[in-house]
Give the backbone structure.
Amino acid sequence: MGPASDSFAIKLIRDFHAAQRPIAMVCHAPAILRDVKSAQGTHLVKGVSLTGFKNDEDTEIELLHHLPFSLEDELKGRGARYLSKANWEPNVVVDGPLMTGQSPASAAPLAAALAERLKG
């Protein structure tokens, strides 16, 4: 259980995605996408380009062995096209309403991308 399997958050993301409303997440937040399914019952991330905190970053700060699962591995395992850059480099990936940032360095560019989306 825990935040990555919170039914309210999962429903909220599914509803926002269906309505094409922007969904922005950075660092480990995309872990919630692990259990989100589309109305057709497939994983929402299947075939979707995204990013999030990568295994190499978790390992570098000795966090990977404290986490219940690897965000990178779980999303790839559900069919996501996981895109990453060098550790700690800003990286924002936008695919439809889903907007993701790789690490803390991605927070500001992700916020700017979200602000632009909300303007339009």
